[in-house]
Amino acid sequence: MKTVFLTLLLGLVCAAQEAPAELDPSQITGDWHSILMAADNIQKIEEGGPLRAYIRQLECTDRCSSLSVNFYAKFPSQCTFLNVVAEREGDVYHVGYMGSNFFELIPVSENTLAVYGENFDGVKSTKVTQLLAKGDHATQEDIQQYEELNRERGIPIEHIEDLTQTDDCPQ
């Protein structure tokens, strides 16, 4: 009897699991601005760090199976415009930039989007997040959700960098 009950319970739990939400290209494609960034290896995202990026635009193609990302990086203090195209594999995107990167897009609100990724530079893996906004700021509620994402992924809150303070790259 216990086995039947446990099997039924497991079936109900599995049935209650939601399928991952399909990305809506109209919510993803457009102009975005990097607000916050965090990493478990803070050196990777500090000013001059290889993963510090100032996102400007995302563009979904073919129902978001490909994602074009326009952004600036500073090498060392000069803004350099870059474009990469990430390919979707399930719910995760893959792109080569400063190593191999896998990332997912996480809608936070109508005007904000979180990005969670892992970068492998050939030696070490680094967890990285960014909070993007359609404008030049995020609400306190969006920031709290972003902080929670970092906690869930094992990234210390004190590793969050405010990119709006150093973003002097062209719009």
From TrEMBL:
One of the record's GO molecular function terms: small molecule binding
Q: Which PANTHER family match?
A: ALLERGEN BOS D 2, LIPOCALIN
Q: Where does the UniProt annotation place the signal sequence?
A: 1-15
Q: Which domain of life is it from?
A: Eukaryota
Q: Which GO terms describe its cellular component?
A: extracellular space
Q: Any idea where this protein resides? A: Secreted
The species is Bos indicus x Bos taurus (Hybrid cattle)
Q: Which named protein is this?
A: Lipocalin/cytosolic fatty-acid binding domain-containing protein
Q: Which key words are in the record?
A: Secreted, Signal, Transport
Which InterPro entries does this entry report, sorted A to Z?
Calycin, Lipocalin, Lipocalin_CS, Lipocln_cytosolic_FA-bd_dom, OBP-like
Q: What is its main location?
A: secreted
All residue ranges annotated as the Lipocalin/cytosolic fatty-acid binding domain in the record:
29-167
Say which family it is in: Belongs to the calycin superfamily. Lipocalin family.
